[in-house]
Amino acid sequence: MTPQEVLEFAKLNEVQQVDVRFADIPGLSHHITYPVKEITLDSFESGFGIDGSSIRGWAAINESDMLLIPDAATAFLDPFTEIKTLVMNGNVIDPITRQHYERDPRWIAMKAENYLQTTGLADTVYFGAEAEFFIFDNVRFDQSMHEGFYHIDSEEGRWNSGRKENNLGYRPRVKEGYFPVPPTDHYHDLRAEMVQVMTECGLEIECHHHEVATAGQCEIDQRYNTMVKSADNMMLYKYIVRNVAYRYGKTVTFMPKPLFGDNGSGMHCHQSLWRDGKPLFAGELYAGLSQMALWYIGGLLKHARALSAIIAPTTNSYKRLVPGYEAPVNLAYSRRNRSAAVRIPMYSSSPKSKRIEFRPPDPSANPYLAFSALLMAGLDGILNKVDPGDSLDKDIYDLSPEELKAVPSMPASLDEALDCLESDYEFLLKGDVFTAELIDTYIQYKRKNEAEAIRLRPHPYEFHLYYDI
Q: Is residue 155 among the annotated active site residues?
């Protein structure tokens, strides 16, 4: 919609309030709400004032004034508010220079799309991200000087099979939760409602299903879209999933690894480049790929260890990215093989379906930053003709120690990932997509507030290991 169409839509639908949203550096969505009379055509030019100093990773207090400009093209009716509310994403503007704010994640994604077009390689990049999540019935956690704990419960959790009260059985076994029908799949109806709400809000959904883990691990697959739109959609996807679950007294987490001993949640990212409506990744080389696609893979694999700080950005991410378990930590590519970091799907021979899937990302990532970084790595591979090496078509989990030594792997911790980003970020600076100042801010924020904060605190399992030492 145009700004004028937004105002007409609001009037037609008797909207009473307007909500404008934006994301912080870690990827949490924020919002500010106005009575509908406050929104005029001028609002789409002049914007609304906000305090940037209170947003994680943003401006210091002496540079805190920011403007939030609504993007009319993103408007939809909020399905959860009691008062009829229209929602739009906003772009953050510096009120002095009237330029986009360089720490606004959405602006970074917009710059990445613009940079793609300036390269002449393609005019469109499509992303299709598959974000997994858990539905729990109860969660408790706390950390203080003298104690630290978490407790999760799920009606569907296999650990409840021995419960005396209200026990009807039908729970997925550990690592056996893929595609069971109800009643073993407890959350079919809940996911179906999530899909209906998503559809009403403009998301295109391809399917939904139970995932591998017990205790309510689920996946809802969105149809691919252009990069900024896909990132917008992922933010809306999370909002809808959480709020539909909340309606029914459930809680959702996108933490990569909330359960010990069962599968974690990933966000596999399908990617393809197009020009003039034609797919550029289809060809006559390995797995039906073009040379451009292989170079794109080369860029992803070359920069994967640096990318990890952005696409697997939490200390919890590295509880999922562990060699020998479910996550693809080995930096190789293969057709059909889900144990490789890069998989080439082989469901269809159509050139329009030819794409690559990068499997290490998880849904704790900020989608604007993650998708932008992946695109920049792939483009760097094309521009520098980076050879991805030979494909690895055997089960990587069954390789001998000697064979594994020849296959590079993802970092083992957030600290290591941040070190990798610190030593390899030049590819992100091309076209001024990311700035060195932003990357430095990101690294320092992650080190101080996450990696170091975890390192300073005793872990409950350390008492098991060391209390009597």
A: no
Q: Which of 357, 362, 415, 450 is catalytic?
A: 357
Both tokens assigned to 360: 């290490």
Segment 185-231, tens digit of pLDDT: 999 999 999 999 999 999 999 999 999 999 999 999 999 999 999 99
Read off the pTM. Answer: 0.95
Is-catalytic flag, 338?
Answer: yes
Q: Tell me which CATH homologous superfamily contains domain 119-466.
A: Glutamine synthetase/guanido kinase, catalytic domain (3.30.590.10)
Beta strand ranges found along 173-215 (DSSP E): 205-210
Instruction: Measure the CA angle with vertex 409, ends 407 and 414; round to 5°.
Output: 170
Q: Are strands 333-335 and 148-153 parallel, antiparallel or unpaired?
A: unpaired
The reply to whether 3-101 and 119-466 are identical in fold is: no
What's the pLDDT band for 63 if we cut at 50, 70, 90? low
Told to judge if 426 belongs to the known catalytic residues of this protein, a careful annotator would answer no
Active site residue 326: no
Give me the CATH topology for the region 3-101: Ubiquitin-like (UB roll) (3.10.20)
> Is 459 among the catalytic positions?
no
- Concerning whether 209 is annotated as a catalytic residue, the answer is no
Residue 140, beta-bridge partner list: 151
Catalytic residue among 247, 338, 457, 459: 338
Which single residue is written with the structure tokens 């900020």? 366
Catalytic residue of the set 78, 103, 359, 415? 359
Task: State yes or no: is 268 an active-site residue.
Answer: yes
Q: Residue 357 catalytic?
A: yes
